Structures are given as structure tokens and as C-alpha cells.
User: Which sequence fits this backbone?
């Protein structure tokens, strides 16, 4: 499951980078202290994984 851990970290890094580039964006908290969004990991044999984070323009 190391690839899933890498993806989870990469998703968080993408959100952080976006927020640094866009001062008019703000992350809407999900209540999860480990990740800025939510992630649905794929089944090991078949399927896609998804990541989403809610951002607002301020």
C-alpha cells in the first residue's frame, strides 16, 4: 500500500501549493486533521481512487 500513502501525501501537497499561489482561495475545513480533503482509495484489484477538497474564493 505504499503507492496509496504517496498519493495521499501528494494530494495534500497539491492543495497547499494551490493555496500558496492563490491568495484569494481558502480551504473549507472537513474536520480531518490529517488531510485537507477526503480521499477514496481504489480497491486493490479494480477501480479508481478519488480525492477532493472544498475551497472557496474570498
Assistant:
Amino acid at each position: 500500500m505504499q503507492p496509496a500513502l504517496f498519493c495521499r501525501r501528494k494530494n495534500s501537497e497539491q492543495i497547499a501549493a494551490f493555496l500558496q499561489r492563490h491568495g484569494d482561495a481558502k480551504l473549507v475545513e472537513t474536520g480531518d486533521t490529517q488531510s485537507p480533503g477526503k480521499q477514496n482509495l481504489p480497491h486493490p484489484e479494480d477501480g479508481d481512487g478519488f480525492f477532493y477538497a472544498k475551497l472557496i474564493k474570498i
Summary: The chain has a mean pLDDT of 78. Strands lie at 25-27, 38-40, 50-52, 55-57. The longest helix spans residues 2-21. Residues 2-57 form one domain.
